């Protein structure tokens, strides 16, 4: 046997082997950086959204090692607490805490037991509790004590139950939609946030103009970028309270014009043929209507089904005359021109989605809504036998209110209407303030960008593909080179 001798064989082979080994090490390192651990350990967080109309429990989940990266936290589970919001328990505060039990038991099942002690639980109450606090502070404290006591009885890490401010509600809703849309680490624009609840509504966006009022401005530094936000929350302008305001105004003018007994409230925002007897205290028991003096006990609520008259009546709840700034939305509140795309969620979505009005032009939306409002009540009930009549009866009002709020209130135009996206979820997580609230309280969004920015997923896939191709070509070259060398050597021997 003759040994093949070639003086530059060895360095070439060593070089190629080194390239392959380094390549494999880089691939493994990138896989780790790309946050695709072999076995994913998760952490959890619970936020209770104690809204004016109801309470929801949200369970969030994220990979234990990579909690500071945008888009890593996702909604694992949500549970709707049965019954009304916690503010409805003012006369029976213990009932508020007890109402959370079923959903909290569910949370115990959904989160692995060994994670329970480290899982934070937060409860944030919104406009319903703000109103109760205005009306009766002692009662609102008792309700908060009751829910706090209930939450402390679970094996999680209780972090507090409090009434959040309207500014926090707006700002955390904005953080949620931009975190979920992965806008926060890119130089691209952000998404404004429009939230419509039962008792308040929020508008939050990055404006182009100066913010003239200190109360409406909020600054964040997230992942190394500065955000200067405009935000405002209108208490009493959620859809349930706005209905009361609007009906109250109509009742007042009816009382002035006609003192017959019982009073007939002829309402263009309800369908023709709709006729219900209501009692004044039931409809108007809210601090949003303190100045209105409405003594009569019962009245007939009669539908007329006239969209344009309905819009006229709703306009009366917005004061668009007085403005101490260069420009206002309504009620003397400063607002810069709306700018950029907006995500409109909660009742903005529920109502517009129910009426199939989430993707039309403003003109078409108005036409369709006018036709819907004039549809007889009997037909509406026939078409939707499974929906509670109370909710069904209010969609004409609610959608007309939404259009009026967006157009006359926030000054969206037929042109900027198309920048509004009616959304419920982004990915598998709900749009709302709860996720932003938890990200903030757990410091999961760092002010500065991490030192090693991640390669985007598409870039990672392309890189891995090209690198694998390179390794394959190198292996083939080595193979052919050796084959040729061996053959040459064999020929030499022959
Ligand atoms: N699928 C749903 C859920 C809720 N709603 C109604 O939409 C309104 C707002 O609901 P939500 O956003 O849950 O309000 P809350 O959070 O309870 O109120 P707030 O934010 O003002 O405290 C309420 O009138 C509720 O009855 C609806 O029409 N359809
Ligand atoms: Ca809400």
From TrEMBL:
Named cofactor requirement(s): Mg(2+); Ca(2+)
Gene Ontology CC, one term: caveola
InterPro entries for this protein: GDA1_CD39_NTPase
Chain sites annotated for binding ATP: 198-202
Location(s), subcellular: Membrane, Caveola; Membrane
Keywords: ATP-binding, Calcium, Disulfide bond, Glycoprotein, Hydrolase, Magnesium, Membrane, Nucleotide-binding, Transmembrane, Transmembrane helix
Catalysed transformations (reactions): a ribonucleoside 5'-triphosphate + H2O = a ribonucleoside 5'-diphosphate + phosphate + H(+); CTP + 2 H2O = CMP + 2 phosphate + 2 H(+); ITP + 2 H2O = IMP + 2 phosphate + 2 H(+); UDP + H2O = UMP + phosphate + H(+)
Membrane-spanning parts: 12-33, 460-482
Top-rank taxon: Eukaryota
EC number(s) on file: 3.6.1.5
PROSITE patterns, alphabetized: GDA1_CD39_NTPASE
GO BP terms, alphabetized: nucleoside diphosphate catabolic process
MF (Gene Ontology): apyrase activity; ATP binding; GDP phosphatase activity; ribonucleoside triphosphate phosphatase activity; UDP phosphatase activity
Family from the record: Belongs to the GDA1/CD39 NTPase family.
Function field: Catalyzes the hydrolysis of both di- and triphosphate nucleotides (NDPs and NTPs) and hydrolyze NTPs to nucleotide monophosphates (NMPs) in two distinct successive phosphate-releasing steps, with NDPs as intermediates and participates in the regulation of extracellular levels of nucleotides. By hydrolyzing proinflammatory ATP and platelet-activating ADP to AMP, it blocks platelet aggregation and supports blood flow.
PANTHER family listed in its UniProt record: ADENOSINE/GUANOSINE DIPHOSPHATASE (PTHR11782), ECTONUCLEOSIDE TRIPHOSPHATE DIPHOSPHOHYDROLASE 1 (PTHR11782:SF32)
Assembly, per entry: Homodimer; disulfide-linked.
Name under which the protein is recorded: Ectonucleoside triphosphate diphosphohydrolase 1
Taxonomic path: Eukaryota, Metazoa, Chordata, Craniata, Vertebrata
């Amino acid at each position: 046997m003759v040994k093949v001798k070639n003086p530059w064989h060895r360095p070439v082979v060593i070089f190629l082997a080194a390239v392959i080994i380094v390549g494999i090490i880089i691939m493994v390192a990138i896989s780790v950086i790309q946050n695709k651990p072999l076995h994913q350990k998760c952490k959890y967080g619970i936020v209770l959204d104690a809204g004016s109309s109801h309470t929801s429990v949200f369970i969030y989940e994220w990979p234990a090692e990579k909690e500071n990266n945008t888009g890593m936290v996702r909604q694992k589970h949500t549970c709707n607490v049965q019954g009304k919001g916690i503010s409805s328990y003012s006369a029976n505060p213990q009932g508020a805490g007890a109402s959370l039990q079923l959903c909290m038991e569910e949370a115990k099942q959904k989160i692995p037991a060994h994670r329970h002690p480290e899982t934070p639980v937060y409860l944030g109450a919104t406009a319903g509790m703000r109103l109760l606090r205005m009306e009766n502070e002692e009662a609102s404290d008792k309700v908060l004590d009751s829910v706090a006591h209930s939450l402390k009885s679970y094996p999680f890490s209780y972090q507090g139950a409090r009434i959040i401010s309207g500014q926090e509600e707006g700002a955390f809703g904005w953080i949620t939609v931009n975190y979920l849309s992965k806008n926060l680490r890119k130089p691209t624009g952000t998404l404004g946030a429009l939230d419509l609840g039962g008792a308040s509504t929020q508008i939050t966006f990055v404006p182009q103009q100066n913010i003239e009022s200190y109360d409406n401005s909020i600054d964040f530094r997230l992942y190394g970028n500065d955000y200067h936000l405009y935000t405002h929350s209108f208490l009493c302008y959620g859809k349930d309270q706005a209905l009361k305001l609007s009906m109250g105004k109509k009742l007042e003018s009816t009382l002035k014009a006609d003192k017959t007994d019982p009073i007939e409230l002829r309402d263009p925002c309800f369908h023709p043929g709709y006729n219900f007897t209501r009692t004044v205290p039931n409809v108007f028991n809210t601090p949003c209507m303190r100045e209105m003096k409405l003594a009569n006990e019962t009245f007939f609520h009669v539908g007329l089904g006239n969209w344009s008259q309905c819009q006229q009546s709703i306009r009366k709840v917005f004061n668009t005359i007085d403005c101490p700034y260069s420009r206002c939305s309504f009620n003397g509140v400063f607002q810069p021109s709306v700018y950029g795309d907006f995500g409109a969620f909660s009742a903005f979505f529920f109502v517009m989605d129910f009426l199939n009005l989430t993707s039309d032009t403003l003109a078409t939306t108005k036409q369709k809504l006018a036709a819907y409002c004039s549809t007889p009540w009997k037909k509406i009930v026939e078409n939707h036998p499974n929906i509670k009549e109370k909710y069904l009866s209010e969609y004409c009002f609610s959608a007309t209110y939404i259009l009026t709020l967006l157009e006359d209130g926030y000054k969206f135009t037929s042109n900027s209407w198309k920048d509004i996206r009616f959304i419920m979820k982004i990915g598998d997580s709900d749009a709302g303030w709860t996720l932003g609230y938890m990200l903030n309280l757990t410091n999961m969004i760092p002010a500065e960008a991490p030192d090693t920015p991640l390669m985007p997923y598409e870039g990672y896939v392309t890189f891995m593909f090209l690198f694998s191709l390179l390794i394959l070509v190198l292996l083939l070259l080595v193979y052919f080179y050796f084959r040729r060398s061996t053959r040459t050597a064999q020929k030499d021997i022959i």
